[in-house]
Amino acid sequence: MINSLVAPDRFIMPPNTVSYLAGPLGGLAWKTANEAAKQYFLTLASGTRIEEVFAQVEEEIYPLLARQVAGTPKDVSIAFALNVTEALIKLLDCIEASLDAQHNIVTPSTAYSSLRLLAKSLRQRRGTQLRQPEGTTDDVIGAIDEQTRLIIIEEFDTQYCEMLDLARIADVARSVGARLVVDASQLIGIFPLDFHHFDVAVSTAYKGLLGASNGCTPIFLNRARWQPGAIRPSYAGRNSIQMESEESFLFKDDPGARLQPGGLNWLGIFLLLDSLRNMQELRLELEDIAQHVLALTTEIVLALKDLARTNDQLTLDIIAGKNPLLRGPHATIRMQRASAKLVCERLAERGIYLSYDSTGLRLGPRIHNSSTDVERAVKHLGEVLLELSYNPLDPTWVAG
Ligand SMILES: Cc1ncc(COP(=O)(O)O)c(C=O)c1O
Predict the structure, then answer these.
(1) For labelling, which of 51, 91, 313, 370 has a CA lying 20 to 30 Å from the CA of 296?
(2) Looking at ligand 1, which atom is closest to the CA of residue 115?
């Protein structure tokens, strides 16, 4: 029997919640987020210049964020963008000039849409070759060669529901002189990451970091991998430069500051800080969170297999990493997107919250979950699938 790591009543949940396992979609917001948002608006309403307040916030939030990748602000320079897509656009803007026609870029065919599309647009602009292997460690490494200059990956492969070995990939990337850009959205705040294993990582704030709000994406630049001047955006807003004259501007020294040209989504940043403070006050260690999530994911997989044992109609195609220690933050039941959406809607009527993507129905436990949540969710899922006449052989249900 696994208990929750943090009492569920510390989070804002839909009022009728029976079980909330929709972690992959986004984490639950801490109830303290309400107070943090109020403080933010009161600060503005009292006429305080937001830049002054933000200077203090930066001092506190950068070390807390750096801890998420096992470093300090001396190891990683941090910047904020509005979302992962924007963060990648800004980074690729700085990397692009080093790419030309004899080079290749490696991005798995299953990576998040922005990663794939941005890699494709680099191919069009720079004439580089684009390699799109599957998203496992071996497949990514197999696609890298002497001409690889850029590798853009997620650190969790949603096709196989398995974590990648970033240390191994980083070694190979460095041996050929390629930049390694990692989208850590699925793992950050849940599994320990190490800044030594990427050149730059980006992540959503609203999943494992429980930062409540979209609109605030931390960028982690491994300082040792960016020589002075390597981050030189093709734009310069008032926060990224030291001098304001348009003709002779001078970028700030800090690589992260250079990527943050103008006003930021400060409310999102305040909410993220509030979440990081909660995690620190509760002494939540990433190792413990990871162990908790892995143990519950194993329970989910076993409970789903049990469903099939009791009813032939409930034979499910369960995607979960073969090695339980590499399973990462969720398991998926392979299903057509439209069917998975319908199942989620029916389950939500019963107070059971799961999520879905193009791979299928996803069950992702987080710090507020216990074994009871798993039991309830799987029991209701079985009932809903029978109600909807689920058929494992019917292509409208199961993707080919
Ligand atoms: C792996 C991954 N990256 C990024 C995002 C979000 O990025 P953006 O806000 O740019 O769409 C998500 C959201 O689901 C995601 O799963």
Answers:
(1) 313
(2) 3
